[in-house]
Amino acid sequence: MAWKNWKNGLLSSLVILCLSGCMATENLVHVPEHEHMAKVEDYDTGLHRQSVHIFNPMPIDERVAQFKLQPRVDHIVFVIDQSSALSDSFRGLNTQFYAKEVVRRFIKTMPTRRFSSTIVTYDDAINPQLYAPLDARLSVSPLLPIELEKQLGQHRALQHVEVQSLSVALDFVSELVGNLHGPSAVVLVTEWEQIDESVEHAVMRMRQRADFTTNAHVVVPESASIAWPQSYSGLCFYTVGVGNRMSRSRLESADSCGFSAAVDKVAQPSNMANFVETVLYRGPSDSDNDGIYDYQDRCPDTSPGKMVDYSGCPRFPTNH
Fold this sequence. Notes:
Elements: H1 2-24, H2 46-49, H3 61-67, E1 69-71, E2 75-81, E3 89-90, E4 93-94, H4 95-109, E5 115-124, E6 129-131, E7 141-143, H5 145-152, E8 159-163, H6 166-177, E9 184-190, H7 197-211, E10 216-220, E11 224-228, E12 235-241, E13 260-262, H8 269-280, E14 281-284
Parallel strand pairs: 2-5, 2-9, 5-8, 9-12, 12-13
Antiparallel strand pairs: 1-14, 3-4, 5-7, 6-8, 10-11
Helix pairs in contact: 4-5, 6-7
């Protein structure tokens, strides 16, 4: 029996060797390599290893010029929470300091041109105070990014609000954006714990005021009337949660344009560049509305209604 088992094992081994030999002599198919073919490279983990204390900005000037990006907003307002609610530390840094740092990274990434903008810092106080440079009203002005950055180096920004709560501070900002002409963006940097129902309602009030295109009147007791002046069409509200690693979307229902993101989602250079572009720009321009972006359009003055090809030139050219 042992001899029979040994014999069967030997035959099996010979069969396997024969089959291996046949496979070795089989012709292989050689596919030529093309330079345009996609290649799989090692995943770059450098950004994940980079310290949160280091920020090498990726300015978007070149991208804006190359793709002729259209501005999304005419004004941008940064609201930085510096209240006692941000008393903890985040990644080894004071949370109040890091709230300013997020805005500094945003400004470092902005294109080098003047923006109608301002920075408003908020602190909680029993006795309300409004610090503004001129007539005790918040305002925006054309500023270079470097001029905006200078405001961050101070204990409080040039325009500063001290009130009982964040929702009241947002009402002051609502007064500001409600008197601007053209679409605006508000970037709020705070902790998620600060986003309660009162803040949600404040954002809704701000948005409602921004959407009015004619004078609106709010009737108050004793038959008085408060007039809301003619406003612009559009407000995008963005919230960055400092001290938080997960994003939250509570304000999404209160604001149809904008979103909320945890600071970890926007703090690194590439993510911040995408965030800045999303806030400031809509997308490539198409001046003649032929469906071909200007940076690809070889015939930028196509007549309305003309059928064009992929280069933006008339598909059926005429001699006329």
